[in-house]
């Protein structure tokens, strides 16, 4: 899996500002139902926000990393407070054009 550069993460964060959370993590934590919900959200869009509710058993960072490790191709863009931004490019027709990584 490719690593996102800081410039690419900054671009994705700016795009995520206007988004509302589409996946909510409750007391069950990262369950099969939650993973299915996240996968379905990625079928409709490339960039999603998830929110950890008060009763979530883990931190948002742990939750985001769990989702990224269990759903193919997902990158954690940002975690802040109880919100995480996740990105997965569309395999055939990506809508989001990332800035080119700087070649050193």
Write a structural description.
- The protein is an alpha+beta fold.
- It has a single domain, classed as YhbY-like (Translation Initiation Factor IF3, 2-Layer Sandwich).
- It is built from three helices and four strands; from the N terminus they run αβαβαββ.
- The protein has helices at residues 6-16, 32-44, 60-70, and strands spanning 23-25, 47-52, 75-80, 83-87.
- It has a four-stranded mixed β-sheet, sandwiched between helices.
- The longest helix is centred in the middle third of the chain and has 13 residues, at 32-44.
- The protein is globular, with a radius of gyration of 13 Å.
- The mean pLDDT is 91.
Mass-distribution shape? globular
Given helix and strand content, the structural type is: alpha+beta
Pattern of helices and strands: HEHEHEE
Task: Please give the order of strands in the largest beta sheet.
Answer: 1-2-4-3
Average of pLDDT: 91
Largest sheet geometry = 4 strands, mixed
The total count of helices amounts to: 3
Please identify the top-level CATH class: Alpha Beta
What share of residues is helical? 25-40%
CATH topology: Translation Initiation Factor IF3
| Overall number of domains | 1
Fourth CATH level, the homologous superfamily: YhbY-like
> Based on the structure given, which CATH architecture is correct?
2-Layer Sandwich
Gyration radius (Cα, Å) is 13 Å
First-residue to last-residue Cα separation: 20 Å
The unreliable regions are none
| Beta-strand share of residues | 15-25%
Number of strands: 4
